[in-house]
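Notes continue from the previous slide.

Worked example: a multi-chain complex. Inputs as given:
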Amino acid sequence: MRVYFDASVIIASILSSTGGSSKLLRYVKNNKIVGITSQTAVDEVLEKTEKLKRSKKVIEDFIVKSRLLVRKHITLKEIEPYKDSVHIEDAHLIAGAVLTKCKYLVSLDKKHLLREDIKDRFLPLLLVSPKELLGNFK
Amino acid sequence: MNQAIINNNQQEWLKILGKGMVTLPKKWRDELGISSGDIVKAKKEGNKVVIEPQKSKLAPYRVYSDKEIDEFLKDDIA
């Protein structure tokens, strides 16, 4: 099962080892799921070094050790089909998930992504929270 | 004309042509999304020259506020 991780989930897993995001990353490490993200999402995480109280190097090491597969940057050309259906700053997530053939896009962003209208727009791609995705494993 | 002389993964020896012209290897141009006619940024850093593609070719992304991150943590239930 291929799951695309957005920056919010990676950020939460760095800050809390007990939350759903960390649990999902443990599933990636144990090969229960294939976790994928992009260099664009990684750049998004690296913008928050101050909040994360970790250096860029420590965050990069965390991502390497997580065993997430990091796709190259998403380009403007690649977001073209999605940029009018979602906020342009989130279009790279839909493009990344579709380009890497993921079934799920996991996010904690209720305000911009985990909304019913947005979820319906990108079916069969499933936009879910870590909690919802973890429900599949019970 | 292929100017690449030695290939060592991310490193190439390139021949400088007349008027300082140099050809970036096609593989690098493809990876970085650099096409003919594009403008790239060249920086002289000490005794190095670094060439960067325009970032505007890349998709924009969201930068979450600290408050939004705090909300993510509250919602991040296992």
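Summary box: The first strand of chain B starts at residue 7 and ends at 8. The radius of gyration of chain B is 20 Å.
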